[in-house]
């Protein structure tokens, strides 16, 4: 488990204070994958550095599996860092080392006997599907293979937590999905907690159980995927489940509603039910339906006729578990 409480990081630049993190708090349960999303400058990289104590936070606490890291001795911190595996945007492999030598490097640093290193490396290479590439050098590997080496290396010390900093942003879409599928497989097999820093919403859709939106050093939205997608007032919902870019805002006169829903409702004939129940014609302006994890999610934009009882229809939809935003009447 990762627990961050009121984490602040302030840099001094000349006579000015620059607030990189303004009081971040979050908790990621054991065995879950959590995404931190945000634009450049949001504070994502600073957060990673503070989580590993490569940067000392100005205030606040960081704990992994109940072990508080911000107030420990140098030796304790060194031991704690071994329980945190790091995966980077670019695998950062040693060009002069083979795959197996790169993976075994963290164990060399801890003085692990060579026989144990060899056995552990073989186990990890099988786990990430690179057994046949044990003797290959980074220049002989594809981008996805190099990232698999980086993941195997991060797991060498049997960490409790895997921190992934933009792990797929340098990869093509197919390879991105393969790496994310691998991360999920490793999470399930090792029961490891994963934190993914990313600016790609596809990563969140593909791999994450929950997500936080970081902006200007603050978490402005947070929750599991189902709750953020069905939050009609949130920005993450409309980013994770967008309408088509050319979606019309109206078609003639009427009241426009945006609907967000999940689970059983996503496969139900919601629009037909509204039409039958209220004896009105409902115009569907745009929609998208996606499968995220084991759930289906839908986002529809509909238009009701001018004489429709919008309040009653809205309450009917809400009572059926559908989030509704009234966009206005045109």
From TrEMBL:
CDD domains: ABC_MetN_methionine_transporter. The keyword Flavoprotein does not apply. Keywords: Amino-acid transport, ATP-binding, Cell membrane, Membrane, Nucleotide-binding, Translocase, Transport. One of its GO terms (molecular function) is ATP binding. Residues 2-241 form the ABC transporter domain. PROSITE patterns: ABC_TRANSPORTER_1 (PS00211), ABC_TRANSPORTER_2 (PS50893). Coiled coil: none annotated. The keyword Aminoacyl-tRNA synthetase does not apply. PANTHER family: AMINO ACID IMPORT ATP-BINDING PROTEIN, METHIONINE IMPORT ATP-BINDING PROTEIN METN. This is D-methionine transport system ATP-binding protein. It comes from Glutamicibacter protophormiae.
């Amino acid at each position: 488990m990762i627990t961050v409480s009121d984490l602040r990081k302030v840099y001094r630049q000349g006579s000015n204070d620059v607030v990189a993190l303004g009081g971040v708090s979050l908790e990621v349960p054991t065995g879950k994958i959590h995404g931190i999303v945000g634009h450049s400058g949001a504070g994502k990289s600073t957060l990673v550095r503070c989580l590993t104590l490569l940067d000392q936070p100005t205030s606040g606490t960081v704990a992994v599996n109940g072990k508080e890291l911000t107030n420990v001795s140098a030796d304790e911190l060194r031991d704690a860092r071994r329980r945190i595996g790091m995966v980077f945007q670019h695998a950062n492999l040693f060009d002069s080392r083979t795959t197996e030598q790169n993976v075994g490097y963290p164990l060399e640093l801890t003085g692990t006997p060579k026989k144990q290193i060899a056995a552990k490396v073989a186990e990890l290479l099988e786990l990430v599907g690179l057994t046949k590439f044990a003797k290959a050098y980074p220049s002989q590997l594809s981008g996805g293979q190099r990232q698999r080496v980086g993941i195997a290396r991060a797991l060498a010390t049997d960490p409790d937590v895997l921190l992934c900093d933009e792990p797929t942003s340098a990869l093509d879409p197919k390879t991105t999905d393969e790496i994310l599928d691998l991360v999920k497989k490793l999470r399930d097999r090792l029961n490891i907690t994963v934190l993914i820093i990313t600016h790609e919403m596809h990563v969140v859709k593909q791999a994450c159980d929950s997500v936080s939106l970081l902006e200007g050093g603050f978490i402005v939205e947070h929750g599991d995927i189902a709750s953020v997608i069905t939050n009609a007032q949130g920005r993450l919902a409309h980013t994770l489940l967008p309408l088509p870019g050319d979606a019309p805002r109206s078609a003639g006169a009427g009241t426009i509603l945006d609907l967000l829903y999940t689970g059983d409702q996503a496969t139900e004939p919601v629009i037909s039910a509204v039409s039958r129940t209220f004896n009105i014609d409902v115009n569907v302006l745009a929609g998208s339906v996606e499968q995220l994890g084991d759930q289906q999610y839908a986002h529809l934009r509909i238009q009701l006729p001018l004489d429709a009882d919008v309040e009653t229809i809205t309450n009917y939809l809400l009572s059926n578990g559908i989030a509704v935003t009234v966009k206005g009447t045109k």
